[in-house]
Amino acid sequence: MAEVEEGGEPILTEEECGEEGAGVEDEVVEPVEGEEDEYAQVGMGGAAEVKLFGKWSYDDIEIRDISLVDYIACKGDHATYLPHTAGRYQKKRFRKASCPITERLACCMMKKGRNSGKKLMACRIVQHTLEIIHLLTDQNPMQVVVDAIINSGPREDSTRVGGAGVVRRQAVDMSPFRRVNYALYLLATGAREASFRNLKTMAECLAEELINAARGSSNSYAIKKKDEIERVSKSNR
User: Fold this and answer.
1) Can you list the positions of beta strands (E) in 12-127?
2) Which among 123, 137, 135, 125 is positioned nearest to 80, based on CA atoms?
3) Structure confidence by residue, pLDDT tens digits, 13-36
């Protein structure tokens, strides 16, 4: 028999609880609308979509220059949440082609001795830059970055040919890989020079540089340098 408390409610033993609960069916909790799809997406083996900083999608990025598709890493396995993968991309030649393009941009922000090694600072600058680009253009900022790199890489350069005191300049085509490298260098250099001894932050200057370069505007340092390099090489053909 169950004991009775002072208040009149019976105290059940463990055995009695087990007997009483044997016939009761487990309650079924129905999921809230919207939760079901979310769990199904993650639970069925397909992970949720990877977005840069949890905001910017990689899916709708279009690389409009077919020659640079293999060298601007921004889709598939190269999609990352942060521009900081800690990969060893300098150990082998051409391996940095597989480094996410936003991480390469962040690495270019670490130029000049006082900034070397400060990758978290560089990542923060890139994050703020993407936010500013989205506010100014209302586009996916990743698309603006890709367009800026495509427009900023020189397609032709000149090299020194000859020896024994007779040296002349000869125009040569630039490889797609070098075009991407040179574009990143020019964009980072233009932003750094614009923000030096200026009230504008590095993120604001980089955002302005990328937007101008994506539009092909001559207000961009990278576009001006690219046109100058191509003009000199044209005269040396």
Assistant:
1) 51-52, 56-57
2) 123
3) 666 655 555 554 555 556 555 555
Q: Which residues touch 146 (CB under 8 Å, ≥6 apart)? A: 61, 62, 63, 72, 74, 101
Residues constituting the chain: 237
Tell me the whole-structure pTM to 2 decimals. Answer: 0.76
Mean pLDDT of 41-58: 72
CA 195, 154, 182 angle in degrees (round to 5)? 50
Give φ, ψ of 191 to 5 degrees: -65, -40
Tens of pLDDT, residue by residue over 221-237, are 999 999 999 999 999 88
Measure Cα distances from 116 to 39, 113, 121, 166 in Å.
42, 5, 10, 40
73 contact partners, CB below 8 Å, separation of at least 6: 97, 98, 99, 100, 101
Of 5-9, 62-66, 77-81, 184-188, where does mean pLDDT reach its minimum? 5-9
Q: What is the mean pLDDT of residues 136-152?
A: 91
- 159 and 176 Cβ atoms separated by less than 8 Å: no
Distance CA 187, CA 220 (A): 8
CA distance linking residue 150 with residue 183, whole number of Å: 8
